[in-house]
Write a structure and sequence with these properties.
This protein has 9 helices and 10 strands. The strands form 2 sheets. Strands 2-1-3-4-5 form a 5-stranded parallel sheet, with helices on both faces. Strands 7-6-8-9-10 form a 5-stranded parallel sheet, sandwiched between helices. Helix 5 links the parallel strand 6 and strand 7. By secondary structure, the protein is an alpha/beta fold. The two termini are 22 Å apart. The chain folds into 2 domains: 117 residues, Rossmann fold; 114 residues, Response regulator (Rossmann fold, 3-Layer(aba) Sandwich), CATH 3.40.50.
Length: 243
């Protein structure tokens, strides 16, 4: 459940729009709480709010005192400032330098702006790490899968792959077996010491591989013989990679 605390300087149009928004979102995973704010209590309460809504009027400058007070204590809290059409909009252009201040002249815009604050962030792309000592093979992976819905990462050997696995979130490992220095069997063994769940695909022309038996004993998800059929590899990755 996402909680959003909104402090607002009471004015009828905003209150009505906020109340309607709260009612519409009740069945959802967003819980909005509304808190009327006043100048004399703002310094103690502003830290409790995620967003503030202020109303500027030419006849009452309390909103400006509130804005300055908030910025002295909570510099980054987003503030939505309602400026009526034909009101003070031209006189407060300097306030636009405040990047956390959103100035609107129509209360109906409130809903769209507020929804941006509780919209889920875009999901990060899954990452597939390809390991091979042949640079031409790695280039082929990059060239073939550059439009894939997951990110292509490459390592030119097992040791580099282990370093990357230790510092980055990797969702799938695709590795060769016969590599100089540290071979693919050792790489898989090291990976399994730390992570039993990481999906692994072996792509190899190593004739010592017994397809079904080694897939089982190495605890890997699939074995694809070299030369790799890229369509088969793509289908296998999309089947194995968590959506």
């Amino acid at each position: 459940m996402t909680a959003l605390n909104i402090g607002f300087q009471s004015f009828d149009q905003a209150r009505r729009i906020l109340d309607e928004l709260v009612e519409r979102l009740k069945p959802s995973r967003v819980e909005i709480s509304l808190f009327p704010i006043a100048y004399d209590t703002l310094s103690q309460s502003s830290a409790n709010y995620h967003i503030l809504v202020l109303n500027s009027t030419p006849s009452n400058w309390e909103w400006l005192d509130m804005l300055l007070q908030i910025r002295r204590s909570q510099r980054q809290i987003p503030i939505i400032l309602f400026v009526p059409k034909g009101g003070l909009k031209e006189k407060i252009t300097r306030l636009k330098e405040d990047r956390s201040l959103i100035i609107i002249d129509d209360p109906a815009l409130l809903e769209g702006i507020l929804k941006k604050f509780f919209a889920p962030p875009p999901e990060a792309k899954k990452r597939v790490l390809f390991v091979d000592d042949d640079p031409n093979v790695l280039s082929g992976y990059k060239r073939t899968f550059y439009k894939a819905p997951w990110e292509v990462l490459t390592a030119s050997g097992a040791r580099q792959a282990i370093e990357m696995l230790g510092t980055q979130k990797i969702d799938l490992l695709v590795t060769d077996i016969k590599m100089p220095g540290m071979h693919g069997f050792q790489l898989i063994e090291e990976v399994r010491k730390e992570n039993r769940e990481l999906p692994i695909i072996v792509c190899s022309g190593y004739h010592g591989m017994k397809k079904d038996a080694d897939v089982f004993f190495l605890n890997v998800s699939a074995f694809i013989e070299k030369p790799v059929n890229m369509a088969t590899l793509l289908e296998t990755i999309n089947r194995i990679l968590p959506s």
